Structure formats: structure tokens, C-alpha cells
């Protein structure tokens, strides 16, 4: 599911599992160290692209554009558009708080999106419609 969404086949399946496992599921084998690495790589790639694409922008303008691209909200939208949110709704973490928050976020911001491995009626009972995206979702993108 994740591999198809990102167009990459992992040679090390344990690395993939770690990349989509929040700390609430595993204190040791979770995505936090990978997130740290991904933060730096993502910012560097975005900075490089903006630098060459906007040669007349000031440093301040470039920084604002970079922030808008790598902020939580933007990464959450990218995750849902690439179906990465489904990884949080599957496996052992489907009943974790972040997955419950995600169901409410999807209903509120992506009303046409199928919530995942459970039906929409069950999802409505899980959280309020005011839910925002869990940080876990944007962390997965990083």
C-alpha cells in the first residue's frame, strides 16, 4: 500500500514498518529517528528547488515559501493525496489515538475520501467532527 503510493519498493521491510509506526505503538521501533533524518532531507530538497526556481526572491521570501511547503498542514494534505494515511488506519495502530484523530480529520477535510479499513459509520463514532490531523500523519511524510 505505502510502496505503491510512493513508487518505491523497500528492500528492507522492517525499515518500512518502522517508518509508519508511531511511538504510541512502539517505544523503540518507531519513525522518530527517521523523521529527524527526513526533516533535514525534505528541507534541503525544498530549499534547493526554491532557490533555483525563484532566483529573484529574497531570503525572507524563500524561507516563507519553504515553511509553507513543509508545514504540518501541507504535509498532511500530501499524505492523504498519496494515500499514506491508510497505513495509520491499518495494522496494530488502527485503534491508537492518532488513527482515531485521523478519521475525524478525513471526514472534516476530505469528505469524499473513504476513511479506510472500517466503514464510515464506525468512524463517525470515534471522534468529533472538529478533529485536526494528527502530527503522526505529517511525520510520516518527513
In short:
With 142 residues, the chain is mostly helical. Helices cover 61% and strands 0% of the residues.
Please explain how this structure is put together.
This protein is mainly α. It is 61% helix and 0% strand. It is globular, with a radius of gyration of 16 Å. The relative contact order is 0.15.
| Radius of gyration from the alpha-carbon trace, in angstroms | 16 Å
What percent of residues are in strands? under 5%
The span between the termini is 18 Å
**What is the element string, with H for helices and E for strands?**
HHHHHHHHH
Q: If you average the pLDDT, what whole number results? A: 78
Low-confidence spans: 115-130
Count of DSSP H/I helices: 9
Shape: globular
| Major β-sheet profile | none
- Structure classification: mainly alpha
Helix content: 55-70%
Tell me the number of strands. 0
Task: Fill in the keyword field for this structure.
142 residues, mainly alpha
Question: Layout of SSEs?
Answer:
Blueprint: H1 2-6, H2 13-19, H3 32-53, H4 59-70, H5 72-81, H6 85-88, H7 97-109, H8 120-126, H9 135-141
Amino acid at each position: 500500500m505505502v510502496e505503491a503510493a510512493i513508487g518505491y519498493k523497500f528492500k528492507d521491510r522492517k525499515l518500512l514498518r518502522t517508518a509508519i509506526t508511531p511511538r504510541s505503538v512502539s517505544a523503540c521501533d518507531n519513525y522518530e529517528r527517521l523523521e529527524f533524518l527526513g526533516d533535514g532531507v525534505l528541507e534541503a530538497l525544498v530549499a534547493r528547488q526554491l532557490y533555483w526556481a525563484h532566483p529573484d526572491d529574497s531570503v525572507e521570501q524563500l524561507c516563507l515559501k519553504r515553511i509553507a511547503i513543509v508545514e504540518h498542514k501541507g504535509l498532511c494534505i500530501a499524505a492523504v493525496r498519496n494515500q499514506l494515511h491508510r497505513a495509520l488506519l491499518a495494522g496494530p495502530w488502527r485503534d491508537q489515538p492518532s488513527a482515531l484523530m485521523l478519521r475525524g480529520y478525513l471526514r472534516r477535510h476530505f469528505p469524499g475520501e473513504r476513511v479506510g479499513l472500517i466503514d464510515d459509520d464506525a468512524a463517525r463514532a470515534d471522534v468529533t467532527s472538529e478533529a485536526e490531523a494528527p502530527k503522526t500523519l505529517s511525520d510520516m511524510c518527513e
